[in-house]
């Protein structure tokens, strides 16, 4: 898989935390995809092993969760947190979700979503538990969506869900998902959760 072969379509960080991504390319049988809420250090090109002084076992951003396809998973497949093993990500009320393949030490990023309320960071020293640099190889506004950078909202909200069309060709879906007016957002989980999509139909180009 390559950058843009998935898109984040939901990030709910009011308890219980949850996320959803849609595949825009086939994840082959036996292939894996990983998700993390660790930030990306844009200069060191590594994940931020951020551990605040108030760290607790439920609050660390120190790991990734992994999904391995038991059969071919075609474009349009939606993966949720329940499909990933390794425990649940503890999403902050404002955070980021980075999706990648390969080793954590040398990831190939596929897509990202940042609802931290901060722009993509350009220096490593600016990255904390609640923000991130633009993941290597991704393009802001295309396959890496940052709600502040794109001007979708000038406040941080806890819960985001894509509510636009769920039937289009791959480029059409990618464009629709990258359009801010197609998202529902709120600090109230219940008002957003009903918009979370469970499947997409990918039409021929």
Number of helices: 2
What is the succession of H and E elements? EEEEEEEEEEEEHEHE
Structural Rg: 16 Å
Tell me about the largest β-sheet.
5 strands, antiparallel
Number of strands: 14
Identify low-pLDDT runs: 51-61
- Mean pLDDT across the residues is 91
Approximate helicity band: under 10%
In order across it, which strands form the biggest sheet?
7-2-1-11-13
| Approximate strand percentage | 25-35%
Given helix and strand content, the structural type is: mainly beta
Distance between termini? Answer: 19 Å
| Overall body shape | globular
Describe this structure in words.
With 205 residues, this protein is mainly beta. It contains two helices and 14 strands. It has a five-stranded antiparallel beta sheet with strand order 7-2-1-11-13. The longest helix is centred in the last third of the chain and has 8 residues, at 170-177. It is globular, with a radius of gyration of 16 Å. It starts with 5 loop residues before the first strand and ends with a strand. Residues 51-61 have low confidence and may be disordered.
